[in-house]
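Re: that backbone. Tokens:
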């Protein structure tokens, strides 16, 4: 999933006016980092199609709150909502799914933070190693057949117009 996160980081770093964009939320953020974007993975779940995974993430973005002197706090919100719109546009271009925007994430008192909750899909996960194979048909009258070798599964699929599907050993196989 790191390739997906870094591709997202790189796309978001191109948003005009953003001073820093990284994966993760580090402790040592300096005033020079603002306006900032941080892509923080929250949860990784199985995705679609097979061998993809979905990472749910919070994309934090923020600006210094004391910059509100020129235009007030409304100017800070205006700038942040412009960044939020740019993040949503980049997510759409990346094939991500926008879920929601959380405003006023005031974990840092001198900065105004918001966060976009999003889902990103990547196929850079390490698939489980298949140690058995099945041949399936798109015919409800036929049951799948399982094989211990890929060669046997491919031979059966070719002879019977089936599709080979890897079966990963995520646990012990049941015995009769």
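Recovered sequence:
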């Amino acid at each position: 999933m790191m390739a997906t996160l870094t591709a997202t980081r790189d796309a978001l770093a191109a948003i005009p006016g953003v001073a820093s964009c990284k994966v993760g939320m580090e402790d040592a953020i300096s005033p020079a980092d603002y306006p900032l974007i941080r892509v923080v993975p929250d949860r990784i779940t199985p995705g679609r199609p097979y061998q993809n995974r979905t990472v749910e993430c919070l994309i934090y973005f923020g600006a210094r709150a004391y910059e509100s002197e020129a235009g007030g706090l409304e100017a800070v919100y205006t700038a942040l909502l412009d960044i939020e719109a740019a993040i949503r546009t980049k997510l759409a271009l990346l094939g991500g799914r926008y879920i929601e925007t959380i405003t006023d994430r005031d974990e840092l008192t001198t900065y105004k933070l918001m966060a976009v909750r999003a889902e990103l899909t990547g196929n850079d996960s390490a698939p489980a190693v298949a140690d058995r194979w099945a041949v399936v048909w798109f015919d409800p009258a036929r049951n799948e057949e399982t094989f211990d070798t890929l060669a046997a599964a491919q031979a059966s699929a070719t002879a019977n117009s089936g599709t080979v599907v890897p079966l990963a050993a995520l646990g012990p196989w049941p015995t009769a």
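The first strand starts at residue 20 and ends at 23. Residues 72-94 form the longest helix (23 residues).
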